[in-house]
TrEMBL record:
Name used for this protein in its record: Protein SDA1
Biased composition (Acidic residues): 521-552, 560-616
Protein transport listed as a keyword: yes
CC per GO annotation: nucleolus
UniProt cross-references to InterPro entries, sorted A to Z: Sda1, SDA1_C, SDA1_N
Biological role: Required for 60S pre-ribosomal subunits export to the cytoplasm.
Biased composition (Polar residues): 313-323, 506-515
Amino acid composition bias (Basic residues), ranges on this chain: 745-755, 778-789
Subcellular location: Nucleus, Nucleolus
Alphabetic keyword roster: Nucleus, Protein transport, Ribosome biogenesis, Transport
Amino acid sequence: MAGSLGLTPESLKASGRSSENLSLLILQGKIKRDPEGYETELQLIYKQFKTSVDLFQQQAALSFSSVGGIGSDPSVSKDLGDRAMFLAHVTPFYPKQLSEFPAQLTDLLRTSCLAMPSGLRNHVAQALILLMNRKSLVIEDLLALFLDIQTLGDKNLRALAFGHIVQTIRKMSITDPKHKSLQKIVISMLEQEDEAKAKRALATLCALHKKKIWLGDKNERVAIAICEACFHSSPRIMISALRFLLDYENIDDDDDSDAESDDDEDNKKIDQVVINRQAVYKANNKGTSSSKKKKQAKLQRAVKSIKRKQRSSSENTTSTFSPLNHLNDAQKFAERLFSRLQTIKGTGERVETRLMMIKVIARTIGLHKLHLLSFYPFLQNYAMPHVKDVTQILAAAVQSCHDGVPSDAVEPLFKQIVNQFVHDKSRPEAIAVGLNVVREMCLRIHDLMTEELLQDLALYKKSHEKAISAGARSLIALFREINPSLLVKKDRGRPGATVAKPKQYGESNVFSNVPNVELLQESDNESGSDGDQDDDDVELPIGDDVEQELIPDDCGCKDEAEEDSNDGDDMNNTEDDSDIDTSIGGDEDEEVNDSDEANTDSENEDIESEEDDGEASDSSVEENGNKEKAKGKKRKIVDFDANLLSADTSLRALKRFAEAKNEKPSFDESDGILSNEDFQKIKELQAKKEAKIALARKGFKVPDSDQLSKKRVDPAKLEAHIRHKLTKEQRLELVKAGREDRGKYKSKAAVKQKKTGGSSNKQKEHRKNMPLAAIRSKAGKSKRTKKMKNSISGSQFRGRKAWK
């Protein structure tokens, strides 16, 4: 072949080089060191490449097979692949001589990819990737081609092309204008009717969106395209899009961990649990052992509740990246998907597909607070205990409820859930699920519950089943916060607390200021009077060992059992509040109460001395004195004039304080600009406030409607505390897990036989000589037993006769 190209072996030998020395790898290294000295060899190999392409195309026309490729001469494909890789490596050194090579190689893969064997396709694809990395090609020229070759059925080639597309777009700058053109190419391929191409385009969009490359408001067309894939003509594309929308919040970001910079990791701060130092001291050093255990258990629950809230707040951030948030017309999307759900109901579509569509519709309704009133009667067909995956359907029903939906539209579904699940003849698992669903629906729509129904459901708190009693108590705890007037008097909680007013339909809280800015103002006011206020608080990092650091080991297992009885939030801690209701600052409360009683007694004494005359006042004083003696307290004699003067001065002090407060410029009157330090301080003060609320055991805080709409309802939480029947394999696993620390069972005889060494101390005691007294007593005892046996063995005893 060299002779036909004008290069004979004699001419090569005359120049000091032979054909045997023309190894491509060796020549490649020499060309990189001296490009100008090897232009002749380059032209030779380039012409050989063109000849190999022509020969390959001729053989492909003669014997073509889409599965095995060229079967006549495999050396042709091998030579073609080797020369293609060689030319791709040396193209940057000869830009003029090889200016047409990238286009020729691209056309070869585009036109003859079906005829190529698997090895040749991989070599050509790797050569194109190398040309792209060397800036000889751009990704716009190869994106459509690499998406097409992924549909050939070659796994290695598909993984190579897919990984290269993702990594190339990932390395691009965020502000690069090429993103729009690339998105247009992929989205246009997704809209095609070809199922294979649309599937690869959807996989590319989902991967780039999951890795947060095509994410945000600038790339909202990608999120909209993923959502629109739910209406593709191919059922597989529709199922893939639905599955991605549902599983997006559970995606682990392990793949893109290397993309995160070290600065981001350094900026991540450990959340702090701010606990009062005095509370920690009293929990460990004040009171009796039983009161210490209660205080320690309360402190432990407070830390866990704060950890749970902070963990849930961090988990809710992933929902903001969901493609459903970027819908331009969410109402139209939900209506279209619901109409398609109704049309495929009788077409024999799989139940899993319909269930995924129901969950996506419910997620969209809850996230955007839509009104799709026909969706709730549709769910009534599935809200029955015997339906498969009924907990997922009930979770979708809960997710679709929000404060903007009228209660009349949801009331039939709500009543059916109560009638089907919560009754005496139902299984305990169904009753527990029904109570939890009722609680979650009433948390979102307060007007669903009536007084009679709530009182009937509250009676399940006496059930012996843990799941049922926990669900009923959580329902009682909810209505203590939102509408305690519906409860019986004994279930309303402590008297004297602020009575909550139920919200009316359409009522919403509108912030006129920065949320929690009053905490910053209060801290500024207190900082002037107390300079060392921060010394009373302890900041504890959130970790698994926080409870062990705060609580000693002798806290008891009872508190852990109480903690385990909770279903994941603070709503279940209602009936047990009477046992652990003593606050950690209980000693101070008693002192305050004592001082208040003393002041009220002195005021009563002054009023009685002013109104009544001598005898009447003396009698009243004697009666009050007797009461004080009965209480074990001494009465203080206070002058009326002095008391009146102190009251007058206290009133004047209050007036001066009010005037000074009015004269001080408020936050609204000032500039109203907060710095980053101010917002950080507001977060710290909010953490302290939540810690105090958790320690005071004042019930749970009803979450905002926006928080409920962003949070995904987990069907597993609706089955809290339900013990499912274990299979035989699961029981065997538990049995084997309990035998790990134990050795193999052996009898005592086997252990004695394998024993090495001397005899034991017990065996040595048997060989010792007995004392003389013991020998005599033993001999006497043996004589008596022998004598008794001899006396009985002679004649059988028949009993004493009655007449003798």
